[in-house]
Description:
Largest sheet: 8 strands, mixed
GO molecular function, one term: transferase activity
Strand content: 15-25%
Pfam families: Glycos_transf_2
Protein name: Glycosyltransferase, putative
Number of helices: 10
Low-confidence stretches: 1-7
InterPro entries: Glyco_trans_2-like (IPR001173), Nucleotide-diphossugar_trans (IPR029044)
Helix content: 25-40%
CATH class of the largest domain: Alpha Beta
Number of strands: 13
Distance between the termini: 72 Å
Order of helices and strands: HEHEEHEEHEHEEEEEHHEEHHH
Organism: Geobacter metallireducens (strain ATCC 53774 / DSM 7210 / GS-15)
Mean pLDDT: 90
CATH superfamily of the largest domain: Spore Coat Polysaccharide Biosynthesis Protein SpsA, Chain A
Amino acid sequence: MEIMDTEPNRKDIFPQYSICIRTLGTSADRFEALLKSIDGLTIPPNEIIVVLPHGYPAPPELRGNELVVYSGKGMLAQRIKGIESAGNDHVLLLDDDVEFEPETMNKLMLAMAKYGADIVYPINRTLLPTPGKAWLRLITIQAIARKNQDVFIRMLPTGGYSYLNKDPLTPLPSESCPGMLLLAKRSALLAINLDEDVWVDSSPYGFRDDAILSYKAHLAGYRIFAVPDVLTRHLCGSTRLDSMRAVYSAFSVGCNSFVFWKKYIFVRGNTAFKKLLLAALFAWSVISLGLLYMVNSVRNRNLSIVFAYVKGNLCGMTKNSKSIAMNA
């Protein structure tokens, strides 16, 4: 009797893949560091796609082997354009301010093959609340650390998330993930109709765009896994916002959080009691976060910040997901 080889094919474990980078072309040294990380990958891509908004010049740091495409300006719009432009069914989605170790793709692809995942991402603790500020996220029910190790990130009834308080030894399922670096099956991302959610780009900041992509995939039944021991670094600029950017950020947090909660959390309440509970928890989150914005506004002598947050919530409450703008 012929014995069939049950070992997975190397091409199945390490398939060809496309890299898709969303950028405004202004990251300079951070974009150069990203390109150096790509150059050093032990499993290189066979395609690099750089997505810019219409009218923006290509970054001078480009090597010349990239495909530059254009889309409407926005975190999700540019991500969608990259996914649609990719020529492979595996896509590595990148922001323009991240660097990573040469073995990144080996580790992510092995995890994807072993666990039958549709999306995998590296665990990066710097993207989670810092110990000194974790209590603020806790009282607003925006981010809660926990010990049980069945899921790495789990969505909360407020639209926030809970996360494992320490890195697991092996990859774990996850209900959501950050978007700075993730490997996904293109077919899965196309199937969840992200075009329905470009409303997120209408506010000044694309807050919640990554949660939309990943949680929507989770709700559709696609498997997401968080992968430990992959060295990545987020090369973000200063986290301190000037007065106008702080106002824009507050509006976007209020508006986008409200619409995300209505569209993906509240509608899943299948009884009147559950809907009431979801509404009560979300109301607490909105009010407590508003109080923190008030304190921040007083401290910075800029009440426009808390007013923008209130206006954002009112916009998210009264507008549908197709008509969101700060001047609404």
